[in-house]
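Entry for the shared binder. Reason: the reviewer on the internal report wants the predicted structure included alongside the sequence.
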Amino acid sequence: MERPAWAPQGIDISVPSVSRMYDFYLGGSHNFEVDREAARKAMEFLPGLPKIMQANRAFMRRAVKFAVASGVTQFLDIGSGIPTFGNVHEVAQAGDPRARVAYVDHDPVAVAHSQAVLEGNEGTVVATADLRRPGEILQHPDVRGLLDLDKPVALLLVAVLHFIEDTDDPYAAVAELREALAPGSLLVLTHASYEGIPRSPEDARGTVGVYRTIRNPLIMRSRAETSRFFEGYELVEPGLVAMPDWRPESPEARAQEDPYAFSGFAGVGRKA
């Protein structure tokens, strides 16, 4: 397999990547055939996966606009993935040019491409770190150099926590991040779940099996389990809901959503 110029040396391009599969679902071009093959296998069970990812991105953009409108102009996006149209910094800086965004990912392809896209944007940084080790994120010199943690920050954990197994204690990681943030900070979160998927449980488990095969287990959590991530935060209206139901731009937009878009949960919480 020929290595494209944007793929960093030292990564195994014969192994599927969750971030590159996500890029494929969104119609991006920074993925390999091995990623597309894995994504197509997952779509054999849940053909609406691209619709879920699109709804996820749409929610993220609405939540960022909400944060800026609430006066929060610092963003810590963990598990940020490969840049696509309508990224956090584009939405935030359109609302307030002073907005600052720290992107964090452990995938070298996502980091390398983000650095190339963001070159020259002084209001952004890209850091290599893992959500399972929040201390590394909080102490990363690039993150600390851009964000003032004594002031409110919007912490984005969008489509990332469902890749953290219970044995890695994602609740403790989220709590450690929360404790480092100032009052008035926001938690913006989406999470996969069996709830809301317009297919049989057997089909959904088939997709979960594909991710397990590529050694990226997809952990489907219930509403109650997802709600636990918001401990220490007060959920803003309308609470923890399906992605299209979180402050849709219009009733018409919500009514036109694909049934797959209502899979899983989304919410925003504010730290008191």
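Summary line for the report: Residues 49-69 form the longest helix (21 residues).
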